[in-house]
Amino acid sequence: MLQQQLEPILPRVQKPARYTGGELNSVLKDKGAVDIRFAFCFPDTYEIGMSHLGMKILYSLINERPDSWCERVFAPWTDMEKEMRSRGVELYALESGDSLRGFDIIGFTLQYELSYTNVLNMLDLAGLPLRAAERNALAPLVIGGGPCVCNPEPLAEYFDMFLPGEGEEVVGELLDLYKKHKAAGSSKAVFLQAAAGIKGVYVPSLYEVVYNTGGTVRAVLPRPGSGAPEKVRKRLVRNLDRAFVPTSYVVPSVETVHDRVSVEVFRGCVRGCRFCQAGYIYRPVREKSPETVNAQCLAGCESTGYDEVSLCSLSTGDYTRIEPLAASLLEWTNAKRVNLSLPSLRVDSFSRELSEKLTPVRRSGLTFAPEAGTQRLRDIINKNITEQEILSAAAEAFAAGWVSVKLYFMLGLPGETPEDIEGIAALAQKIVDLYYANPSRPKGKSVTVSVSVATFVPKPFTAFQWEAQNTAAEIAEKQSYLKSLVKSRKIRLSFHNREMSALEAVFALGDRRLAAVIETAWKSGCRFDGWDDVFQPALWQAAFASCGLDPSFYANRRKGFEEFLPWEVLDYGVSRAFLERENARARRAETTPSCREKCAGCGANALNGGSCDAND
Questions:
Q1: By CB neighbour count within 10 A (0-12 exposed, 13-18 middle, 19+ buried), where does 467 fall?
Q2: What pLDDT sits at residue 586?
Q3: Among 198, 206, 101, 211, which residue's Cα sits nearest to residue 159?
Q4: Which of 507, 499, 509, 503 lies closest to 472 in space, CA to CA?
Q5: pLDDT digits (tens, 9 = 90+) for 265-294
Q6: Could you tell me which residues come within 8 angstroms of residue 253 by beta carbon, excluding any fewer than 6 positions away?
Q7: How many angstroms separate the CA atoms of 595 and 451, rounded?
Q8: What is the sign, positive or negative, of the torsion defined by CA atoms of 326, 331, 332, 337?
Q9: Theoretical Cys-Cys bridge with 181: which of 163, 191, 327, 594, CB 3.0 to 4.6 Å?
Q10: pLDDT greater than 80 at residue 403
């Protein structure tokens, strides 16, 4: 039936292979022989979702269970949505072609705040009520995981539960409980109350939000008799060597953003950059052994046919056993003509010797992230790299034959001055000059220094969660100033959309009242808000005005330490006292050493029985 409906549609849309399924290694099961049907939903395009490692892991993990079938669902692009709505085609899973309405659990991975209207759109395309309170039956349950669950409150009205932390650790317990209650014919309310008893499960309907007269949140409290915990602590995988990793991956039918095998080398980060949410919420550090990583890389290539392997982490150069790992990988990657890449390199961990080992097959550009243009501001954000280290890393790269370097910076960081903006242009020019000062540079080739400048977005569970974001007008002025400072054609300057960053901050820092804004914006036509060619800031402005909420209240106001923050019903292991200390140190432009140099007492090791690979 679905195939007949799709036949006249697919020739009319971009990249029809996004919507057909049937890829190599996709999992097909007899739906009559399983107890639980799970729809893994990625609220963005197929190309982005199929690049996501977490989706690959959970898809395979759930399908390892004989009683469960996990299928994939992606947000249809605007052309496909139009065709589906005009022809009455409901949103369907790629494996079976069945509508989402027929599934037991609908699980969204929430990777980016600007995907929230896509979540609502996907539920609506499936013919489901948007709000959790309007979905009365046990199935389908709507659950959410991923980094945005750090502050799930803006979406709390739409989700039955959230899973803060690492899904591999909790999803099995949740499925076991669901299977039991489904067999018993339990109501949704009974099941949710039981699910709240699983460590690492947050059921927002079991909590009441209390507001102060000024509109700030006073508390998020368990409802009397609910049995819900006062704080929901994230779950984590304690030993990555024993963690589940797929032996095969679904091979996409179209080119994806990251068209390669990706294998984690460790989770967490030792650096403590004060703006970086991932650096805090994935603590404590847990490393895989080189033997495990090597075996997983080889298995991934053999099951997919990919000719590139990427070693993933927040800072791959900080992996303590990178040299022996590289040696073991090169024993077979060279012979198989497989390219080995190391993303997330810091300038102070770049090694010419290592880089030369990694690039016998093909050489690509290098990316470094100074983040700030002056040492004073790098100290404020605790980047802990010097200009000399940045220049030395660039010199090593040029000496090894690279002709392209990409630099990441931010505008609007706490404590920023015009001198910091001037420092961005000056540093980029110094790197250009460094290339031409290299007597052994490739003849006839010019250098390209790409400078990508984002807008600082305060995020929950960081040392800067209390800080205000610059307004869009302030960022526009700073962007214009930086443009005026860049004189060389060898420097390519690009900026992230400042209005998108403003909206991202609102939902990163917001509370449950924002649900009305999201729904209003969606009804007015907002979709794919993270895409420049689709984003409609005027509609968002109208939605805020219609709902009587001021976005600047959330994004452009500094919070005091005495204020309760909407996400403090969750516990990600890093203590509030530690974050307050880090914020105070930032205001004094004092750095905090790497976790490997000295433990700063963040508290996250308590999640792992006191163990942290950063300082064990």
A1: buried
A2: 98
A3: 206
A4: 499
A5: 999 999 999 999 999 999 999 999 999 999
A6: 17, 18, 20, 22, 23
A7: 29
A8: positive
A9: 191
A10: yes
Burial class of 149 by CB neighbour count within 10 A (0 to 12, 13 to 18, 19+): buried
pTM over 0.90: yes
Average predicted confidence (pLDDT) for the chain = 93
Q: Is residue 352's pLDDT more than 60?
A: no
**DSSP letters for 573-589:** SS-HHHHHHHHHHHHTT
Reference 573, options 613, 529, 609; nearest CA is 609
Q: What is the DSSP string of 322-378?
A: HHHHHHHHHHHHTTTT-EEE--S--GGG--HHHHHHH-SS----EEEEEESSSHHHH
Residue 537 · residue 499 · CB < 8 Å: yes
Mean pLDDT over 355-384 rounds to 78
Please report which helix (H) or strand (E) contains residue 123, including its range.
Answer: helix 116-125
CA–CA distances in Å: residue 504 to residues 135, 282, 552, 559: 28, 20, 12, 17
Cα angle for residues 496, 500, 504 (degrees, 5° grid): 115
Contact 610, 238 (CB under 8 A): no
- The answer for residues whose C-beta is within 8 angstroms of residue 414's C-beta and 6 or more apart is 380, 381, 456, 464, 467, 586, 587
**Mean pLDDT value of segment 211-227:** 97
Burial code of 312-329, b = ≥16 C-beta within 10 A, e = fewer?
Answer: bbbbbbbbbbbeebbebb
All domains in the chain, ordered by first residue: 2-233 (3.40.50.2300)
Q: For residue 104, what are its two tokens?
A: 């037991």
Predicted confidence (pLDDT) at residue 360 exceeds the cutoff of 50:
no
Whether 512 and 209 have beta carbons less than 8 Å apart is answered as: yes
Which strand (E) or helix (H) includes residue 451?
strand 448-455
DSSP string, 247-261: SS-PPPSS--TT-SE
Please state the φ and ψ torsions of residue 267, each to the nearest 5 degrees: -115, 155
User: Kind and range of the H or E element at 176?
Assistant: helix 167-184
Token representation of residue 572: 């990600």
The mean per-residue pLDDT over the stretch 166-187 comes to 97
Residue 249: count of CB within 10 angstroms of its CB? 23
Whether the pLDDT of residue 359 is over 60: the answer is: no
Q: How many CA atoms, within 13 angstroms, populate the side-chain half-sphere of residue 339?
A: 13
Quick one: DSSP state of residue 471?
P
Residues 508, 531 contacting (CB under 8 angstroms):
no
Give the Cα separation of 332 and 361 in Å (integer). Answer: 12
**What are the tokens at 246?**
């797929």
Residue 110 corresponds to which amino acid? Answer: L
The span from the CA of 260 to the CA of 341, in Å, is: 10
Q: Which of 370, 339, 369 is nearest to 355 (CA)?
A: 339
Alpha-carbon dihedral angle through residues 468, 473, 477, 478, given to the nearest 10 degrees: 30
CA–CA gap between residue 139 and residue 331 (Å, rounded): 50
Residues 385 and 348 sit within 8 Å (Cβ to Cβ): yes
| DSSP track, 499-526 | HHHHHHHHHHH--TTHHHHHHHHHHTT-
The pLDDT of residue 362 is above 50:
no
How far is residue 427's CA from residue 408's CA, in Å, rounded to a whole number? 12
Q: What six digits make up the tokens of 288?
A: 């895989």
Pairing outcome for strands 36-42 and 105-109: parallel
